[in-house]
């Protein structure tokens, strides 16, 4: 079974993939990646559309083989970067996954922060990063976006009964009840 966590961004999308052997209830591996490209103020519509298509193509290539994809919800209150273009990327990726019948679960920003940090939904991205590095000291978690993608993927693995991140703080466990999980389990 493959579980993917996506922290979508135009310049630095954090991607995490958890590969499980469900017959043996064993973790096979965790893959991490960060993808994106800088845009420029004044880019033409064609340039912006091309950037969105390229980023969506890379993210979809990462996620299409997954049995379950979890994605961080858009940060509606964010005023940094190009919110309009970020929204376009989000819908390009999610729309394609849903059109292909792939199960996708949306994880709120506060849910990601609380699960990843083990503290609260207001935890900083750096707190999530340091917590995920402690949970996975052998993984190359090299930035906030990758840590966020990994935290989100771990939530999906735990929901499916495979807590690959081991014992987590009580706030991390408590936030699991707040996620809008599907009514039926996902099967490989």
Topology (SSEs and partners):
Layout: E1 2-7, E2 13-21, E3 26-35, H1 45-63, E4 68-72, H2 83-99, E5 104-107, H3 109-117, H4 125-135, H5 144-159, H6 170-175
Parallel strand pairs: 1-4, 4-5
Antiparallel strand pairs: 1-2, 2-3
Task: Report on the architecture of this protein.
- With 188 residues, this protein is an alpha/beta fold.
- It has one domain: Nucleotidyltransferase, domain 5.
- Helix 2 links the parallel strand 4 and strand 5.
- Helix 3 packs across helix 4.
List the defining traits of the structure above.
188 residues, alpha/beta, 5-stranded mixed beta sheet, 6 helices, 5 strands
Overall geometric form: globular
Query: In sequence order, what are the helices and strands, one letter per element?
Result: EEEHEHEHHHH
How many separate domains make up the residues? 1
Radius of gyration: 16 Å
Helix content: 40-55%
Biggest β-sheet: strands ordered side by side in the sheet: 3-2-1-4-5
| Strand-pairing-aware structural class | alpha/beta
Number of helices: 6
Query: In CATH, what is the homologous superfamily?
Result: Ribonuclease H-like superfamily/Ribonuclease H
**Main sheet characteristics:** 5 strands, mixed
Mean pLDDT: 91
Strand tally is 5
The assigned CATH architecture is 2-Layer Sandwich
Strand fraction: 15-25%
Low-confidence runs of at least 5 consecutive residues: none
The first-level CATH class is given as Alpha Beta
The CATH topology label is Nucleotidyltransferase, domain 5
């Amino acid at each position: 079974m493959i579980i993917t966590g996506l922290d979508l961004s135009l310049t630095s999308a954090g991607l995490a993939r958890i590969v499980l052997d469900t017959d043996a209830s064993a973790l096979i591996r965790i893959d991490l990646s960060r993808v994106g490209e800088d845009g420029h103020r004044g880019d033409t519509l064609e340039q912006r559309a091309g950037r969105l298509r390229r980023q969506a193509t890379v993210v979809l290539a990462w996620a299409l083989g997954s049995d379950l994809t979890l994605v961080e919800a858009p940060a509606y209150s964010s005023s940094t970067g190009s919110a309009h273009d970020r929204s376009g990327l989000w819908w390009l990726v999610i729309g394609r996954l849903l059109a292909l019948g792939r199960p996708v679960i949306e994880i709120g920003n506060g849910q990601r922060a609380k699960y990843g940090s083990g503290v609260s939904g207001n935890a900083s991205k750096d707190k999530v990063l340091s917590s995920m590095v402690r949970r996975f000291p052998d993984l190359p978690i090299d930035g906030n976006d990758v840590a966020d993608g990994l935290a989100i993927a771990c939530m999906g693995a735990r929901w499916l009964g495979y807590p690959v991140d081991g014992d987590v703080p009580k706030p991390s466990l408590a936030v699991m009840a707040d996620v809008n999980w599907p009514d039926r389990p996902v099967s490989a």
